[in-house]
Amino acid sequence: MGKQATRVIVNGKSYARVVDARLTLADFLRHELNLTGTHLGCEHGVCGACTVLVDGRTARSCLMFAVQANGCKVTTVEGLAPEGELSVLQQAFIDNHGLQCGFCTPGMLMTLTELLRDTPAPSEQEVREALTGNLCRCTGYAGIVAAALDAAQRLRGAAAKPGAP
After folding, report:
1. pTM over 0.90
2. Alpha-carbon distance 60 to 150, whole Å?
3. What are phi and psi of 75, to 5 degrees?
Protein backbone atom coordinates (compact mmCIF):
# COMPACT_ATOMS: atom_id res chain seq x y z
CA MET A 1 0.00 0.00 0.00
CA GLY A 2 2.85 2.41 0.69
CA LYS A 3 2.72 5.89 2.07
CA GLN A 4 0.25 8.68 1.45
CA ALA A 5 0.18 12.39 2.11
CA THR A 6 -2.40 13.39 4.68
CA ARG A 7 -3.50 16.83 5.79
CA VAL A 8 -5.77 17.08 8.81
CA ILE A 9 -6.84 19.75 11.25
CA VAL A 10 -6.63 18.42 14.80
CA ASN A 11 -7.94 20.54 17.65
CA GLY A 12 -7.74 23.60 15.43
CA LYS A 13 -4.15 23.06 14.26
CA SER A 14 -3.27 21.97 10.73
CA TYR A 15 -0.92 19.03 10.23
CA ALA A 16 0.53 17.60 7.03
CA ARG A 17 2.25 14.24 7.15
CA VAL A 18 3.22 11.41 4.84
CA VAL A 19 2.07 8.26 6.60
CA ASP A 20 1.77 4.55 6.04
CA ALA A 21 -1.62 4.02 4.40
CA ARG A 22 -2.45 1.41 7.06
CA LEU A 23 -1.74 3.69 10.04
CA THR A 24 -4.87 4.04 12.14
CA LEU A 25 -6.13 7.45 13.11
CA ALA A 26 -5.64 6.47 16.77
CA ASP A 27 -1.97 5.65 16.21
CA PHE A 28 -1.54 8.80 14.10
CA LEU A 29 -2.92 10.93 16.94
CA ARG A 30 -0.93 9.17 19.63
CA HIS A 31 2.40 8.59 17.87
CA GLU A 32 2.64 11.26 15.17
CA LEU A 33 0.99 14.12 17.09
CA ASN A 34 1.67 12.99 20.68
CA LEU A 35 -2.01 13.39 21.61
CA THR A 36 -2.20 10.48 24.01
CA GLY A 37 -5.63 11.31 25.43
CA THR A 38 -7.14 9.07 22.78
CA HIS A 39 -6.94 5.65 24.40
CA LEU A 40 -6.74 2.25 22.75
CA GLY A 41 -8.64 -0.53 24.46
CA CYS A 42 -10.01 -3.32 22.33
CA GLU A 43 -8.77 -2.04 18.94
CA HIS A 44 -11.95 -3.55 17.43
CA GLY A 45 -14.29 -0.57 17.80
CA VAL A 46 -16.22 -2.14 20.66
CA CYS A 47 -15.04 -0.34 23.80
CA GLY A 48 -15.25 3.28 22.63
CA ALA A 49 -12.07 4.40 24.42
CA CYS A 50 -10.64 5.70 21.13
CA THR A 51 -13.66 7.83 20.21
CA VAL A 52 -12.88 11.20 18.63
CA LEU A 53 -14.93 13.68 16.63
CA VAL A 54 -14.30 13.75 12.88
CA ASP A 55 -16.03 16.70 11.27
CA GLY A 56 -18.15 16.92 14.40
CA ARG A 57 -19.31 13.29 14.47
CA THR A 58 -18.08 10.51 16.72
CA ALA A 59 -15.72 8.03 15.11
CA ARG A 60 -13.76 5.08 16.41
CA SER A 61 -10.20 6.11 15.68
CA CYS A 62 -8.95 2.54 15.99
CA LEU A 63 -11.10 1.53 13.01
CA MET A 64 -10.29 4.51 10.81
CA PHE A 65 -7.12 4.99 8.85
CA ALA A 66 -5.36 8.33 9.22
CA VAL A 67 -5.56 8.81 5.45
CA GLN A 68 -9.36 8.56 5.69
CA ALA A 69 -9.26 11.73 7.81
CA ASN A 70 -7.47 13.60 5.03
CA GLY A 71 -9.11 17.03 4.75
CA CYS A 72 -11.14 16.54 7.92
CA LYS A 73 -11.34 18.36 11.22
CA VAL A 74 -10.60 16.04 14.15
CA THR A 75 -11.27 16.87 17.77
CA THR A 76 -9.67 14.82 20.53
CA VAL A 77 -10.19 15.07 24.27
CA GLU A 78 -7.27 17.51 24.38
CA GLY A 79 -9.29 19.88 22.19
CA LEU A 80 -12.42 20.08 24.35
CA ALA A 81 -11.18 23.15 26.26
CA PRO A 82 -8.28 25.60 26.13
CA GLU A 83 -5.09 24.21 27.64
CA GLY A 84 -5.18 24.34 31.42
CA GLU A 85 -8.96 24.61 31.52
CA LEU A 86 -11.83 22.14 31.65
CA SER A 87 -14.95 22.06 29.53
CA VAL A 88 -18.32 22.18 31.27
CA LEU A 89 -18.67 18.44 30.66
CA GLN A 90 -15.21 17.66 32.04
CA GLN A 91 -15.98 19.66 35.19
CA ALA A 92 -19.32 17.87 35.55
CA PHE A 93 -17.48 14.52 35.38
CA ILE A 94 -15.35 15.60 38.33
CA ASP A 95 -18.25 17.05 40.29
CA ASN A 96 -20.46 13.97 39.77
CA HIS A 97 -17.79 11.29 40.25
CA GLY A 98 -18.11 10.26 36.61
CA LEU A 99 -14.66 8.72 36.45
CA GLN A 100 -12.56 6.29 38.42
CA CYS A 101 -9.60 4.79 36.59
CA GLY A 102 -10.16 7.25 33.73
CA PHE A 103 -9.34 4.89 30.87
CA CYS A 104 -12.76 5.14 29.24
CA THR A 105 -13.23 8.81 30.10
CA PRO A 106 -11.86 10.40 26.89
CA GLY A 107 -14.20 8.32 24.73
CA MET A 108 -17.13 9.01 27.04
CA LEU A 109 -16.42 12.75 26.89
CA MET A 110 -16.28 12.75 23.10
CA THR A 111 -19.51 10.77 22.76
CA LEU A 112 -21.30 13.02 25.23
CA THR A 113 -19.92 16.17 23.57
CA GLU A 114 -21.70 15.17 20.38
CA LEU A 115 -24.87 14.25 22.26
CA LEU A 116 -25.05 17.51 24.20
CA ARG A 117 -24.36 19.54 21.08
CA ASP A 118 -27.16 17.80 19.17
CA THR A 119 -29.54 17.27 22.11
CA PRO A 120 -29.22 20.15 24.60
CA ALA A 121 -31.76 18.67 27.03
CA PRO A 122 -31.32 14.90 26.86
CA SER A 123 -33.30 12.54 29.01
CA GLU A 124 -31.53 9.97 31.16
CA GLN A 125 -32.57 7.33 28.63
CA GLU A 126 -31.06 9.34 25.75
CA VAL A 127 -27.77 9.66 27.65
CA ARG A 128 -27.72 5.94 28.38
CA GLU A 129 -28.48 5.11 24.74
CA ALA A 130 -25.70 7.42 23.53
CA LEU A 131 -23.25 5.62 25.82
CA THR A 132 -24.08 2.10 24.62
CA GLY A 133 -20.91 2.10 22.52
CA ASN A 134 -18.65 3.12 25.42
CA LEU A 135 -17.64 0.51 27.95
CA CYS A 136 -16.66 1.29 31.54
CA ARG A 137 -15.66 -1.40 34.00
CA CYS A 138 -15.31 0.85 37.05
CA THR A 139 -18.14 3.31 37.53
CA GLY A 140 -21.39 1.49 36.90
CA TYR A 141 -22.31 4.51 34.70
CA ALA A 142 -24.40 6.30 37.38
CA GLY A 143 -21.87 9.11 37.82
CA ILE A 144 -21.31 9.38 34.08
CA VAL A 145 -25.03 9.74 33.39
CA ALA A 146 -25.38 12.25 36.24
CA ALA A 147 -22.43 14.22 34.84
CA ALA A 148 -23.97 14.35 31.37
CA LEU A 149 -27.32 15.55 32.73
CA ASP A 150 -25.59 18.10 34.97
CA ALA A 151 -23.47 19.40 32.08
CA ALA A 152 -26.57 19.69 29.88
CA GLN A 153 -28.27 21.78 32.55
CA ARG A 154 -25.17 23.96 33.01
CA LEU A 155 -24.82 24.49 29.26
CA ARG A 156 -28.48 25.44 28.91
CA GLY A 157 -28.07 27.89 31.80
CA ALA A 158 -25.01 29.47 30.19
CA ALA A 159 -26.82 29.79 26.87
CA ALA A 160 -29.75 31.53 28.55
CA LYS A 161 -27.56 34.30 29.98
CA PRO A 162 -27.57 37.59 28.07
CA GLY A 163 -24.63 37.87 25.72
CA ALA A 164 -23.93 34.11 25.84
CA PRO A 165 -23.21 32.35 22.53
Report:
1. yes
2. 26
3. -120, 130
